[in-house]
Each structure stands twice: as C-alpha cells, then as structure tokens.
Amino acid sequence: MESRKTKQEVQQRYNGAVKRRKWEDPPEDPEAVKNFDPASRVKRRKSIILLGYSGVNYFGMQRNPGTKTIEEDLLRAMQKREWINDEGFRQPQQIQFQRAARTDKGVSAAMQVVSIKLPDNLDIEALNSELPEDIRVYAVKRVTKGFNSKTNCDARTYTYTLPTIAFAPNEEKVDIQTYRLPAERLARVNEVLALYVGTKNFHNFTSRKEFLDPSVKRFIMSFECDPPFLPEGSTAEFATIKIKGQSFMLHQIRKMVGLTIAVVRGLAESDIIEKAFGQDRYGIPTAPGLGLVLSRIHYDKYNKRYGEDGCHETLEFEKEEPMIQEFFKRHIASTIVETELKTNSMVEWLEKLPLHSYEPRDENEPSEWKPRNRKASDDQDDDDE
C-alpha cells in the first residue's frame, strides 16, 4: 500500500507530457483532437543563421525589453515569416536560440552566428525584406543536434577602426584631416600590441573581476595594426587594428586599445602593460566603442570533426564572403568613418586622455575611469564571454 502511494506521488511530481513544448501537443479541444494531424507539426532541426549588422543605432545584440536591439528585430522578422512561432518569439530558449558573441551598444558585426532550431526550406530573401537595411542574413546552414554557437566557437576576431591621429605624439598639434601616420610610428604601434599576445591575466582590462578569478586569464592569438588607408571621399586617414583571441571579457578590447594609444602617444611607459597583468589594480582608459566590429567567428574544431563526414557543412563561409565584404563596406566601415568625422568621438576622447593616471589604484576608488561630462550609462561594451 505504501509503495503504491509513493508511485502515485512520483507521478504527480513528474509528468513527462508537461515537458513537451506547446507546439508539439495536439489541441485540448476534444473536437479538434479528432482532426489533429501529427504530420502537421513543424519539424525543426538545429541550424545556424549567419548574419551581419551595423550596431550604431542599436542598444546591442542581446534582447532587452523596451530597447532597440538586433535580436528583437531578427526574432520579429522570423516570426512574421513563420521561421519561428509565437512561443519561440516570446521565449527563444525554447528553440535553443544562442548567439556566438554578445556585442553591446554601438558595436557592429560583419559576421555573427546564431544557433537555433528552424524548419527546412527557408526563404532568406523574404526574411531580409522584413529586416532593416543595417541587418542582413547571409545564410542558414544545418549543424549537429548538440551544436551551440557560443560554446563550439574556438576563437573570435575583432577589428577596431580609428583615425590615425590617435597615434600622434601627445605634444604635437595635428589635424585629423591632414595627419599621416609615419611607417616607424606604425611599427611602434605593432610593437606595443605584441605585448598582449599569449595567455595573460586581464583582470585590469574588465569590470568587477579579481586577480585570482580564473576567468580573467585569456589567450590572445594575434594583435596587429594594418597599414593606414584613406576612406573613399575622405581626406582623414584611418587604420584598422585586428585582434584574434579565444574569447574576450566586458570592455577588454577597448581597454587594450585605449592603453596602447596612451603608450604610443607618450602618456604612459610601455611597462604599464606588463604591470597591468600583475596583481595591483590599475585604471585602464577605455577607447570609444564606435570603431569596434566583430569580424569573424571561428569553428576550426567543429569543421575538423564534422566537416568531412559527408553529412554536415563546414562553417568556413567562403561562399558568403563576397556578401560579407559588401555589407561591411556599405553599412559598417562607411558608417564608422562618417560617424567619427561627424561626432569626433576619438578626438574628444584623446583630449581627456592626459587626465588619466597610470599609478596603482586604491581599492576604494571607483572601478571605472570615465571622461568628464560622460554618464556611466553611456559607456559601451564589446564582448562578454
């Protein structure tokens, strides 16, 4: 009798049917049940969406009620085109929605990858017609059942595009329209950037992280600045810094760029970088968010394991490269240049940079240095693995 009672309690506590998603269940109405056709259920398979976006007019990638985000526009467009149902729109976790990286306010992505369960035979052109011009879906590809766009990612490549006036000596009075970066100064920039390569402790390059926290150790594979260029229709010279690493923390890339600029301009000694990897706390200047772009997502291990099994596509995206480059040129690179020349975000930041201190900080001081007349809520984030 007692064992029978225990069995009933277990059944009450756990009912496997409750775990099913609503869209998989037949209607509750008895009459509707008679006419319910199991074949009408939408079969969904794990897939990835390859997309790009200009983040200048958005409050980041991740969905946030009451704010304009990339995910909100993407999910709404998928709902309209019936890629997802109403429940999937309200609760994306039900369809295993996951982004490869979370870009924050103002940060763009030439390539972003989202994993999600989707039906077959999707019309990408129709979906893009529902999206604004600054968001573009390049492709949808089938992946393995357990694929996760974030945890399966081996590395991420970011770029940071800025006017070369940022690397001019602090004591020189130069103009953004006429300054040209000398070759020896570019070599100096790359010399400083090389100091970050390898596995380092980046507790000083993020927020609210302690020296002994295991998550602050990150591996940087490469970090270099390309030769400067003149954007079409502009006399101001720009350059692009490229960084590849396994993952990055909140503010990390912008702080690395910010400290590099301070060293190259002569406002800090280069040994400050090595000191910042140590236990002492330092306040690191955070470069503006405008020039930061998520450039590439790397899935080398996945490709090696599944790319040659004859059942799955490799996630290398050579076929989509022309579309990626076209979107980057038209909607990201040009926007960065136009916005910089219009708002002078880098020039204004450089004017405040000499106010920054590079001495060890007291534990009671605020954790983030901010330029004057800048609210904390205005700060922008990059990735946050």
Automatic annotation (TrEMBL):
It is found in: Nucleus. It catalyses: uridine(38/39/40) in tRNA = pseudouridine(38/39/40) in tRNA; a uridine in tRNA = a pseudouridine in tRNA; a uridine in mRNA = a pseudouridine in mRNA. Residues 1-10, 357-378 have a biased composition (Basic and acidic residues). InterPro entries: PsdUridine_synth_cat_dom_sf, PsdUridine_synth_TruA, PsdUridine_synth_TruA_a/b_dom, PsdUridine_synth_TruA_C, PUS1/PUS2-like, TruA/RsuA/RluB/E/F_N. Substrate binds at Y158. The active site is at D104. The keyword Nucleus applies. Pfam families: PseudoU_synth_1. Belongs to the tRNA pseudouridine synthase TruA family. Gene3D superfamilies: Pseudouridine synthase I, catalytic domain, C-terminal subdomain, Pseudouridine synthase I, catalytic domain, N-terminal subdomain. Monomer. Forms a complex with RARG and the SRA1 RNA in the nucleus. Its EC number is 5.4.99.12. It comes from Anopheles gambiae. Keywords: Isomerase, mRNA processing, Nucleus, tRNA processing. GO terms for cellular component: nucleus. One of its GO terms (molecular function) is RNA binding. This is Pseudouridylate synthase 1 homolog.
